[in-house]
Amino acid sequence: MRREQDDMLRRGIGMTSQRTRERLIQRLYEEGISNTRVLEAIRSTPRHLFVDEALAHRAYEDTALPIGNNQTISQPYMVARMSELLLEAGPLDKVMEIGTGSGYQTAILSQLVERVFSVERIKVLQDRAKERLVELNLRNVVFRWGDGWEGWPALAPYNGIIVTAVATDVPQALLDQLAPGGRLVIPVGSGEVQQLMLIIREEQGFSRRVLGAVRFVPLLNGPLA
Ligand code: SAH
C-alpha cells in the first residue's frame, strides 16, 4: 500500500487527473479564451509530461513553471491567448515558433495549424522537446537549433510567427519572413515593462495592435550548446 502511494505520488496521478484538467479549461474559458479548437488542444495535451516529474502535480495550474536552464514553460492562459490571436483570421498553414522551450506551446500549435517550424537556442531543451513530441505522435513539427532573432529564412515566408520570449525590439528578420497577411504575435519590452503585440503584414507596411502587459523570459542572443 505504502509503495503504491509512493508510486502514485511519483507519477503525479490524481493531480493530473481529468478533473484537474477540466478545471483548467473552465478557468481559461472564464478568463476569455473562446476559440474551441484552442481549448480542445489544451484539454487533450498532457502538460505534466512537459515539466519535471517533481512539478507534475502543478502542471494544470494556470502558471508558468521552471524547466531548467533558467527557462520556464509558459502559462497556459498565455499559450491559449497567443494561439487564439494567431488563428483569429482563419486557419494557418506555416507557423514559425521562436523559443521551443519545453515544447508545450509547440505541441498545442501542431494540433491547430498545418506545419510548425520551431527555433530554440538551447540544445538540451530542444532535444527534450523533440522527444516529447515524438512520444505524443505529433509529427508536423520541424526543429532548428539557432538564434530566433534571425528566424528561419530558408523556409520563409510564414503565415504566422509566435515568439515565446520577450524581445527588446521587434526583430527585423521576423518581419521580413512574414507572408502577405501574415501575423506575428510577440511580447516586446524588457524587465517589468512588457507588452504583447500583434503585428500583421498588410498590403502596404504593417499594422500593430498592443494587447496588454505580459511577463516573459528574455529573447537572448546566439545559440547555446
Ligand atoms: N513556449 C515555451 C516557452 C519557453 S521560455 C514553453 O512553453 O515551454 C522561452 C524560450 O525561448 C526558452 O527556451 C529560451 O531558451 C528561448 N529563447 C530565448 N532566446 C532565444 C533566441 N534568441 N532564439 C531561440 N530561442 C530563444
UniProtKB/TrEMBL annotation:
| GO CC annotation | cytoplasm
Q: What residues form the catalytic site here?
A: 74
Task: Report any one BP term from Gene Ontology.
Answer: protein repair
Q: Report if keyword DNA repair is assigned.
A: no
Chief localisation class: cytoplasm
Name the Pfam families on file: PCMT
Q: Which Gene3D superfamilies match?
A: Vaccinia Virus protein VP39
Catalytic EC class: transferase
| Protein EC | 2.1.1.77
Report the superkingdom from the record: Bacteria
Record carries keyword Transferase: yes
Q: Name one GO molecular function term.
A: protein-L-isoaspartate (D-aspartate) O-methyltransferase activity
Family affiliation: Belongs to the methyltransferase superfamily. L-isoaspartyl/D-aspartyl protein methyltransferase family.
**What does this gene product do?**
Catalyzes the methyl esterification of L-isoaspartyl residues in peptides and proteins that result from spontaneous decomposition of normal L-aspartyl and L-asparaginyl residues. It plays a role in the repair and/or degradation of damaged proteins.
Descriptive protein name: Protein-L-isoaspartate O-methyltransferase
Where does this protein come from, organism-wise?
Answer: Pseudomonas vancouverensis
